[in-house]
Every structure is written in structure tokens, then in C-alpha cells.
Amino acid sequence: MSLSTVTPSEPKTWGLPYRIVVEPRLSVPRWLSPAVSVGAVILALLLGGVVIQLAGGNPIESYIHIFKAAFGDVGVFSDTLVKATPLILTGLACTLAFRMKLWNIGAEGQFFMGAWGASAVVLFPLLPANTPAILMIPAMILAGFLCGALWGLVPGFLKARLKVNEIITSLMMNYIATSWVLFWVFGAWSERGFQMSPTFPKSAWLPRLTDYAAQVKAFSGLTVHLGLVFGLVAAVVVWFIMNRSQWGYEIRLTGDNPKAAQYAGINIVRNTVLLMMLSGGLAGLAGMSEISGVVHRLQGSISPGYGFTGIIIAWLAKLNAFGVILAAILFGGLLLAGREIQPSGIPRMLQGIILFTVIASDVLLRYRIRIVKS
Amino acid sequence: MIDWIIVLQAGVASGTVLLFAAIGEILAERSGVMNLGVEGMMLIGAMTAYKTVAMGGNPWVGVVYAMLFSGALSLLHAVVTINFQADQVVSGLAINFVGVGLSTVLGEGLSKAGTVSLLPSFSVPVLSVLPLIGPVFFTNQHVLVYVGYILTPLAWFFINRTRPGLHLRAVGEYPAAADALGINVQGLRYLYVLVGGLMAGLAGATISLAVSPGWFSELTTAGQGWIAIGLVIFAQWDPWRAALGGYAFGAIRRLILDLQGPQVLYGFVNPFYATPMLGFFLQMLPYALTIVVLVLVSREAMRKRLGAPAALGTPYIRGQRGI
Questions:
Q1: Check: CATH 1.20.1070 for A76-329?
Q2: What is residue A151's predicted lDDT score, i.e. its pLDDT?
Q3: Residue B318 near chain A (CB below 8 Å)
Q4: pTM, two decimal places
């Protein structure tokens, strides 16, 4: 089947009374795009099921287990939201950059640097241990954001000034970031030789719902922390920047048609650097939120690939800031439940298959495929 | 002390991995299709090859299966980018995720496989006695390393001096003109994306069956697929430069290991021995170096007006404006 023709394809009947007609769409109905995304996810789950079956597992049991373990009751749904929190932020980070066709695939490294920056406030210490939370938390947010932004600045600057491929540089920065974190965790910040830092003081913890169980009984055991609010606020801000600000318009125009943007006098060099910094900063904020809201210490294993999953989430959400929230919750559930699924690579593989079906199904938005009687 | 001969010898061996992956990617990109899934395809190759051998198969059969499996994965990329005109960057990333995930799922428990039969290594009779060149290139190297020596000039000759090579370049530089001359643009792109996938599988098998035998899930490749893509840019899509860069990177990888061993280096206290923590900076080196090399090469490319194949990254749609 070739879709390379602009005119309706020549009839292929193969002796059947029906033929397939492929023609470009002139307009896309509003409902089609979300419908295709949902269809793509369902198709991906079916394909993943085939692989699970081949690998010796039971796909139906696996999926029922994933659903129950991620969305079964309020408690586990709260855990799903905890997993979704960094994903919302890394998903937004990727959404921003991708909108200008800047391929920031360094969100993972920016996440680690954000976690490192937030930890530095506590562990260097930049602020004394008895600093009240009202000062400590904002300082950690700032440090995490700045460190992530710095990690985005390097590929952004090299791309803008020297036209160095940002895909490779941002990815290489990931490896550098993880080694950098390990250097501190194994060395200066190690707790009694273990490969982790000491636990942060309570003032460096993001408040969780369960911390208010004394006031509201229903909150008991709920681990959702303030980072979720960061994610939701960030989604609103990103939506506003992209859809209601002049800067967002410049970014979208540059992404869709760089030549036109250049003729219109848009400062692409400046926008590239700033956008990569903002994108890196959001991923850094994700690292800060995870370290301060969940892990409460710095260690090597703080991310099951949050930065990489952000790429898939951004794409599944069709680069829509609010869609990112929904996609992040879906993937958060997958991550949460996936920990107990054997073999252990299944969540990663499902993520890959989902991204694949999502981009492959895009063809349905650009072409109408009909079966007609010949 | 550091034995530089061993560093270079091991560099050539592990550089062969980068060489295979980079030459495959050069061929695919010369046809106008970028495949960022090299890392994932290499993992699939490494896992398949090792699994085949762990289950009692012949190592050569393992190599063939590795190439076929990652070749199949690259065909997915071909369908989505060539037929469905999806973005090549995103599709490549998807290939990568699928490769990483699938190899982890199918490679479950493989790290405990124990000793398996590996690809043979041997010395070349006359050449191995040559000074410097002999011990570095022709002594006790894996058979696939020798394949690399043959492949590099062959790929260069094919691209630059043969008719199919001319067609390949035409399809990547100016597909509309190639199409007008009756060259099958879509068909050739399919072919070279597949070749890239086969080569990535070979690169993976080279790791798991020769250079550093075993299956360590994602750590088997540890980003070498991405370095190979960086190498393609460094090489300016030329196989000779890819080979040179591959061997150099291989030598650096080996040097990093050797630097951490000795207590005293050339009369100085070895800082990496005294403070093992500094080893983490050594581990950053290949990745940082990739960035530095890309910066240097971008300046060179700007000066000499070199660059990627003109149609790289753009789907070819007959009758539509553009290149």
C-alpha cells in the first residue's frame, strides 16, 4: 500500500468487489484526533498483549493487574498521581521544546540535575538545616529549576549558535548528569559509605496529604504531595504561553515554518536558547519535586526513566498542555503497576509500542481511507 | 604504567562496534532517512545473538538472527516514515523505546547464562609481525574486527564509485530528480533503512559475542548507539572518517578503564587511584567528548559548506513541491 500519491490512489481490487481509496483530508473533524489517540493506545495494548503472551506471560491477567494496581481504589490512585507528578512536568518540558521542533531528549538528565540542585540546598548546605520550610522549599525549587535550565542551556546554546544537533548533545548530557549525581552520592554526600545521601530534614519535604490526616481523616495514607500542584500550575502556564502569548506564537510559527519565522524577524537564536532553558527548568523542577516529595534523599536510582517517558507523553498528548496531564496519569499508572509485573521490561516496552502506534495512526488524520464498492 | 599497544588494540576491537553501527546509519541517512533507533536496534541485536548462543546455538547463527531481528525493527521505521510520512525523529525514538523494552523483556534471566561459545579471534600470519600496526590491528583480534577492515573501504567505494551508490546519493540529495530518472525512491529508502538495521544488529552482536561478551540489559550498549549517530555527523557521512572516529572512541573507552588501575602513573601519584570518586568524571568523558567533537565538526562544516544529505529527514511525496 503506497500513500505517496496526492490524487486518489489507483483502484486495487485484487479480485474483490471492494477497493481501498486513500485520499488526503481537507479538514479534520474535532473528535477525530482524540479518538485516534485512544484507538492507538488500545491497539498498543493489544500488541503488547501479544508480546506478553509470547514471552510466557498472561496478557489479560497482566492488564487486569495493572488496572487494579493503578486505579483500583483511592489509595493506589493517589500513588498513581505521585508517579504522574514528575511525568506531568517532564511531559510539559518536552511539549514546550517539541512545539518549536527542538528535540530536547535530555529531560532525563535535566531531571537528575534538578534533583541534584535541590539536594545541594540541603546537603552542601546552602541553607542551614533549621531553615523553616517556607524558605527551604522555594530555595530548592529555584535551585532545581536553575540546574535543569543550565542542562538545557548547553544543547540550546550549541544548537542556536553553532547548529550542533541538539538530539545528540541533549542525550549525551543525560549520561553526564547521572555520573555527576553518582559522584556526589558516592563521595561527599554519602551517608556512612552507602550510595545515598542522608535523609533530608522535614523542612525540606514537600507537604503530603497524609501529613494532614489529623485534621481530615480521609487523607490518611494518601501520598500525593505538593509537587502535583506544581505540575497542574505548570500545565496552565505552558498552555497560556503557547496559546495566548506572543512568545508562544513565535515558537509555534518557528516550529511550523522556520523560514517564515525568519522573514517575520523573529529572533530564533534567542528563542531557541530560552525555550531549551525553560524546558530544562521544568524537567529540573520534576527532579526537585520527586526528591523533595517522595525520595527525601539523593541517590542514584531516583528515576525509572521519567525524562524519556516525558517524550512519549508529549507526543501522545499531541503537544497539548492539558492532554499531558491525562497522558501522565495513564503512564503513571503503568509505571506504578509495572513494578510488580514480570518480566520487568514490560512497562518500557508498552511505552515504546504506544509511541509507535500513536505516530503511525497520525496518518489517519492526514488521509481518509475508505472502502468502497467497485 | 599504561600499555598503549593494548589500549589501541582494545580500542580497535570495541571501535568496530561503533564502526558497524555508524556505517549502517551512514547508508540510511545517505538515502534521506535518519534512524535514531540505533541504540534500541543494537540492544535487540546484542540480546538476540547472546540468547541464541546461550540456548546452544552456533555464534554465527546468533549473528544472523541478531541482524534479522534488528533489521525487522528497522522496517517498522521504514513503514512509518516512508509510507506514513511520520516524523523521522519521533519514529526513531519510538524504535529506540521498543528496542530497549523488548530486549529487556526477551533477555530476562539471560545475564545468568554462564559461559557460552563466542566468536573466534585470531592473528593474521604475516601482517601481525609488522611493527605497531601488527600488534594493534592484526594480533588476536575478533573475526568481526577484520570484517570491519574490509567493510570500510567497501562502503566508501560503493557510495562514491558505483552506480547503485550514485542512485543512493541521488535519492538522499534530490529525490525528485532521482524519481524523474526512473529510480525507485521509496524502494531504495526501504532498502537502506533495512541495511542500517542489519548493521546495527551486527554491531550489537559484536558486543555480546566478542568485544565484551554477555548480556547486561541496557548497560550492554551504554549509549554506544547514540555515540554512533554522533559519529555519523563527525564523519560527515564518510565511512573512512567513521572508522577513524570509531577506533579513536574505542581507544578512549579502554583508556578510561586502564587509567583507574595503576597506583603510580609515569612517576606521579595516580589521582584516579587515590580518589576513586574521580572515576565518575572519567565515565563522563566519552559523552562529553562526543559533544566537543560535534562542536568542532560543526565549525568545520560551516567553513567548508559541507553538510547532511539535502533531503535528510523529509519524506518524498511525488508531485509535491520541495526537494
A1: no
A2: 97
A3: yes
A4: 0.91
Interface check A127 vs B, CB under 8 A: no
d(CA B34, CA A29): 32
- State pLDDT tens for residues B118-155: 888 888 888 888 888 888 899 889 999 999 999 999 99
- Does the structure show a pLDDT above 60 at A6? no
Q: Comparing C-alpha atoms, which of A90, A94, A91, A101 is closest to residue A268?
A: A101
For B129, the grid coordinates are 609481525
Q: Which domains does chain B have, with CATH numbers?
A: 4-304 (1.10.3470)
Please report the beta strands in chain A, taking only residues with DSSP state E, as ranges in sequence order.
18-24, 367-373
Q: Which of A180, A344, A366 lies nearest to residue B104, judging by beta carbons?
A: A344
B21 in Cβ contact with B42 (< 8 Å) = yes
Helix (H), strand (E) at residue A212: none
| A157 in B contact zone (CB under 8 Å) | no
Category of A319 on φ-ψ map: left (φ > 0), alpha (ψ -120 to 50) or beta? left
Quote the ipTM score. Answer: 0.90
**pLDDT for residue A21:** 79
Measure CB to CB from residue B90 to each of A171, A179, A315 and give the nearest one.
A315
Q: Is B269 on the interface with A (CB under 8 A)?
A: no
Tell me the pLDDT band of B202, cut-offs 50, 70 and 90.
very high
Give bridge partners of residue A299 from the DSSP assignment.
A196
Do B226 and A168 lie within an 8 Å CB cutoff? Answer: yes
Among left, alpha and beta (phi > 0; psi -120 to 50; other), residue A221 is left
Average pLDDT over residues A342-368: 82
Q: Which of B18, B35, B74, B93 to mutate to test the interface with A (most CBs of A within 10 A)?
A: B93
Q: Looking up cell 500525593, which residue turns up?
A: A224
User: Residues B299-307: contacts with CB within 8 Å, 24+ apart?
Assistant: B299/A162, B301/B236, B302/A162, B302/A163, B306/B236
With an 8 Å Cβ cutoff, is B296 touching chain A? no
